[in-house]
């Protein structure tokens, strides 16, 4: 979560032609185009928003001016990754409040809130920390700004985006963007010309105050079908993930449904990676990648050796559980760079266990996932891929491949 702010800073430093940058989460979208971002800018360097349903400063969207001050502020936020307490810290959302305390409050007040952050165990505790921060920093706020007007926090319902789950698709003239477009339905069909077609049929914010049960999701799907006048009889099959609530929603609707093949593959990988002999090797990869991220001197030497050997400039990758094939790609990168690592004051003997494990099955799954993620693929590709994969697992022969 912190890297995204580093990316913004890096992009800003390379594009001085842009005066202002808007950062938004991937689940934000314009609902009312009759607004302009210029409405929210009034001489500041960086602008945040108060969330409507709680006491947080929103971490998922901000306006930042392309100045040294703006870039430094984001860098300070990103570097707060190294100051996170070993608690339920809320990632960069918790960190923005820690940064505001550090910059705009006294040491005495910081200590009081820091203690609450350090003992946080859940969202309720995190909210207590947030309330503490807001109580003290607002004593330093002048006309909703800090640091002589350089940093502004727009009040609830006065910013360019709000959490849309409260009102679903309903919006007012004051609204500009919604946050939380989580529920989406993609429709696939064969045209009259016998070509495969698809379209995003629906993208709806789910009510954050509703339990996202099978019954609730069934209702949302029925609303979509009614809106587009699609009868259940015209639905051949629903492809969904393997979550129990999704299965239940399809069952309650009386619609034929099936697990997403790639999603099931990733669940199988996740279980397999829990084996001790695999887990220990993955932990080694994680430690090396973390050291690569945190030590600028290590990265500098690492890249210098690559350059001296005439190799392509490749960094190490972190294992991100929510991304398909992330673990395999992180392992693969360490193995590709093993000769460089051997020269960079790293005891690579600790990594030798990696070479003793046959990662070919992960490589094959990565290839299948990549290929089947294409819009042009169909069941005619899934079945051979499934057969090749099960055959390889049974025989443990590296030579078997589906393509």
Question: Can you walk through the features of this model?
Answer:
By secondary structure, the chain is α/β, with parallel strands linked by helices. It is built from 15 helices and twelve strands. It has a five-stranded mixed β-sheet. The protein has a three-stranded mixed β-sheet with strand order 2-8-7, with no helix packed on it. A hairpin with a 5-residue loop joins strand 9 (183-190) and strand 10 (196-204). The longest helix is centred in the last third of the chain and has 19 residues, at 276-294. It comes from Meloidogyne javanica (Root-knot nematode worm). InterPro entries: DUF273, Nucleotide-diphossugar_trans, RNaseH-like_sf.
How would you summarize the topology of this molecule?
Elements: H1 3-14, E1 20-24, E2 28-30, E3 46-49, E4 61-65, H2 68-79, H3 91-104, H4 107-118, H5 123-137, E5 145-146, E6 151-154, E7 161-163, E8 177-179, E9 183-190, E10 196-204, H6 214-227, E11 238-240, H7 244-253, E12 257-259, H8 261-272, H9 276-294, H10 296-309, H11 326-336, H12 338-341, H13 352-355, H14 360-372, H15 379-395
Helix pairs in contact: 1-2, 3-4, 3-5, 4-5, 6-7, 9-11, 14-15
Organism: Meloidogyne javanica
Pfam families: DUF273 (PF03314)
Protein name: Transposase
């Amino acid at each position: 979560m912190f890297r995204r702010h580093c990316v913004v800073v890096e992009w800003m430093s390379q594009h001085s032609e842009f005066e202002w940058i808007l950062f938004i989460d991937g689940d934000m979208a314009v609902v009312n185009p009759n607004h302009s971002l210029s409405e929210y800018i009034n001489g500041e360097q960086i602008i945040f928003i108060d969330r409507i349903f709680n006491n947080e400063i929103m971490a998922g969207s901000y306006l930042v001016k392309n100045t040294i001050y703006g870039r430094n502020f984001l860098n300070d936020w990103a570097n707060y990754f190294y100051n996170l307490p070993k608690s339920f810290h809320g990632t960069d959302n918790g960190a923005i409040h820690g940064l505001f305390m550090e910059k705009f409050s006294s040491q005495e007040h910081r200590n009081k809130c820091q203690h609450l952050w350090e003992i946080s165990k859940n969202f309720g505790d995190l909210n207590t920390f947030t309330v503490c921060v807001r109580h003290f920093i607002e004593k330093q706020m002048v006309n909703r700004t800090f640091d002589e007007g350089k940093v502004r926090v727009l009040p609830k319902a006065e910013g360019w985006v709000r959490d849309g789950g409260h009102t679903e698709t309903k919006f007012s003239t004051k609204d500009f963007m919604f946050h939380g477009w989580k529920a989406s339905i993609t429709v696939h069909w064969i045209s009259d010309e016998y070509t495969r077609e698809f379209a995003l049929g629906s993208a709806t914010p789910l009510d954050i105050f509703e339990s996202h049960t099978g019954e609730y999701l069934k209702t949302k799907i029925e609303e979509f079908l009614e809106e587009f006048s699609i009868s259940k009889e015209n639905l051949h099959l629903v492809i969904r993930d393997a979550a129990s609530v999704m299965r239940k929603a399809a069952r309650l609707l009386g619609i034929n449904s099936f697990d997403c093949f790639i999603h099931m593959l990733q669940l199988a990988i996740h279980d397999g990676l829990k084996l001790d002999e695999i887990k220990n090797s993955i932990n080694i990869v994680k430690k090396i990648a973390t050291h690569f991220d945190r030590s600028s001197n290590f990265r500098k030497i690492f890249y210098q050796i690559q350059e001296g050997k005439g190799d392509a400039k490749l960094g190490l990758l972190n294992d991100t559980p929510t991304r398909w094939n992330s673990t395999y790609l992180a392992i693969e990168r360490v193995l590709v760079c093993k000769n460089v690592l051997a020269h960079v004051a790293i005891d690579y003997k600790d990594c030798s266990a990696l070479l003793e494990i046959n990662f070919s099955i992960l490589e094959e799954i990565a290839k299948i996932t990549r290929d089947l993620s294409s819009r042009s693929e169909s069941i005619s590709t899934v079945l051979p891929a499934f057969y090749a994969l099960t055959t390889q697992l049974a025989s443990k022969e590296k030579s078997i491949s589906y393509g």
